[in-house]
Amino acid sequence: MMPVLLACCMLFTPALQAQTVPLETISLSEHMLFVRGPDANVLAVESSEGVILIDGGHADWYDNLREVVEEAFPGVPIRALINTQWHREQTGANVPLGSAGVEIIAHENTMLWLSTEVWQRWSDKKFTPLPKAGLPVTTLWDDGILQFGDRSVYYGFLWNAHTDGDIWVYFEEENVLVTGGLVSNGRWPEIDWTTGGYIGGMLDGFVSLLSVPDHNTRIIPAWGDIMNLDELQAQNQMYLTIFDRLHASVISSYDLDDILAEKHTAEFDAQMGDPALFMTLAFQSFQGRYRDAQNFRLLNIP
Q1: Can you tell me whether residue 260 is helix, strand or coil?
Q2: CA contacts within 13 A on the Cβ side of 104
Q3: Would you identify the CATH topology of the domain 13-239?
Q4: What is the DSSP string of 164-203?
Q5: Whole-angstrom Cα distance, residue 88 to residue 93?
Q6: Are 242 and 157 in contact (CB under 8 A)?
Q7: How many Å apart are CA 250 and CA 258, to the nearest integer?
Q8: Domain boundaries, the chain
Q9: Which of 9, 38, 110, 206 could cross-link to 106 by cystine, CB 3.0-4.6 Å?
């Protein structure tokens, strides 16, 4: 088993190579560890009250995550878990940590989705409610600050982005921003319109996100490598371009097959991968919002 290095570096180091699900780690400071799993990223931050986890990864690799965190911060208990969204690849630590008395924090909408059965219509998957022990006990609404001893944790609400309960989290001391599910680096996000996701809301979410970082900020996406401000701005511009093209197709009464044939994402596919699911969900997220008088982005929809 390789130790988790606490020296500040920007090189991935294998962690727990003997485990079924290997994780990779980057020490961002003496008190902050980035953990990259196979399907999600996690940030562990030490405070004077204990470790704060931003997201918890999938349940399949919770044991691996717990060992990595314990190696990085020996003898330090986990104080809180913050869910940036409800999807299972980021809430796999809720039940074991909640059962152990760890405070779980999330947006109110995330708590509501986790507490009920969700039929994700676009995937035809059903997600059962989490046990009571795994549900958030502290819920958030708008932007604000959480205090854990010497740690101030800033957060903001990303309204109707990739779900309707997404939040970002920011640590001023290390200048590190966790984006939540809105941003993935190297693959398309899933716009979960079943639970409030909307491509227009993603654009609004980027307005909120881009108000936080500077050119020295390390940006933690939901999946993929750490990003910088230039990369986040480029991704914002990419989605603006795609939205404008999709909007024009909708105005022209194109159906889904027409839209996929238009290849609105062509110049981005080498970086982001196959766009078929993303564009399908983006188009479907438009439906039901055509007559939304409050949505300034939807103009001239026939």
Answers
A1: helix
A2: 30
A3: Metallo-beta-lactamase; Chain A (3.60.15)
A4: SSEEEEEETTTTEEE-GGG-BSSS-----GGGT--HHHHH
A5: 9
A6: no
A7: 10
A8: 13-239
A9: 110
